[in-house]
Amino acid sequence: MSNAAKIMDKVKYSTAHHIEFECISCRNRVSFSILEMADDSVLTCSKCGKQYKFDKELLGKIRRFENLLVAVHDVKDMLETANIAIAVKDEEVKVPYRLLLTRLNTLLKLSVNGKELTFRFRVDPISLIED
Fold first, then answer.
1. CA 20 to 30 Å from 118, out of 43, 58, 85, 107?
2. 95 by DSSP, 3-state: which?
């Protein structure tokens, strides 16, 4: 089974394979699926026509981040008992991991041709927790 097929099998949790970033020319949202990206794929902004071609290194980083989202999905049965602890002076505040998943956006900042782009992974936090 290919890596894309393995990921697609687990993508039930979201539309995380739907990623978007802001075009550096016109600020339009450019959407793509990492599962459909080949090493020579070119993305085109639907508004201004600017083209984006990601090198293997950049695609690898995006794919590894996608794998992180899949890993979170794989442990969803443990999220009820998982917490993030924030230490403030001598006290510790525990925030349920599940709560974080419903309140945070999933973003990845990467440098593309010397410019920083923020990739937004469209993750549905409700289906991440519930089947």
1. 85
2. strand
Cα gap 2→109, rounded to integer Å: 27
φ, ψ dihedrals at 14, nearest 5° = -170, -170
Domain ranges of the chain: 3-129
Note the pLDDT of residue 9.
Answer: 52
- Long-range Cβ pairs for the range 123-127 (8 Å, 24+): 123/13, 123/14, 123/15, 123/16, 123/69, 124/13, 124/14, 124/15, 125/101, 126/102, 127/12, 127/13, 127/14
Q: How far is CA 43 from CA 18, 46, 93, 100, 118, in A?
A: 13, 9, 43, 32, 15
- Packed helices 56-74 and 3-10: angle between N→C axes, nearest 10 degrees: 40
Q: Which residues of the chain are under the pLDDT cut of 70?
A: 1-17, 102-104, 123-131
Structure token digits, residue 88: 């403030």
CB atoms within 10 A of CB 51: 9
State in Å, rounded, how far the first CA of the chain is from the last one: 24
pTM: 0.66
